[in-house]
Amino acid sequence: MAPCAFADQNEECEEQGSTINKPEKSFEVEHIAPSIGDKLNAILKEYEFLKLDILNRSQYQDSYLKLHIIALTAILGGAISQKLGLWVLLLIPIESSIIGLWYLDHAFSITQMGEYIQKSIEPRVCKLLDEKEIMNWDTLVGHNAIIGKRKIFNARLVVYLTFGGSSFFILLVTFIVLIIYRSKIDDIFEIEPTYACVGWTIGFIFSAFYFLSEGEHSRLSAMRKFDEYSNEHRHYKSQK
What we know:
15% of the residues are buried. The chain is built from 7 helices and no strands. With 240 residues, the chain is mainly α. It has one domain (57-226).
């Protein structure tokens, strides 16, 4: 084969190799920043979800409160009418504590969601819209609680007495009866003294757990109010 033929083949191979090894063009996806409307819609969707969850949990709390009142009325009615005996009074601390703990579980969640709305959602909305006083219901409620603008009665105290008060009263009265009238326990409660003591102990354990949970919820609420008061105080000093 002639040398010129080899030269032609080499040139053709070099051209093909350069074509194969040639890197392809990269396609970059253009990043489009979300608009203020898109950001606001995303925040409002989260806000609507949280408010709906708070509403549902509040409805559950109302149902638990009604259930507790019905159960408490039934137990007291059975004891007073002497159809069931006074031993049914030992069920009140157990019933009150269990339903009260269900109530508190929703209260913890509602408090956490309200704090998230106040500290995260409301500031972001105000920043996006460049407004200071918009969508600040949770902040206003917390501020009114700090400066003393409350309702005629403290709803939390009423609920606390509804669950914890009934348990404490029954435990105190039955404890006095168990100590003073040891020899007449079977006649008073119409059950053996051992069963009466066991029932009182179980009620005491449930009630103690409820009181501890209620105390923790009150502590968290107090810390939230203290933080809000500190922020209000710093804001007031900065304006001077």
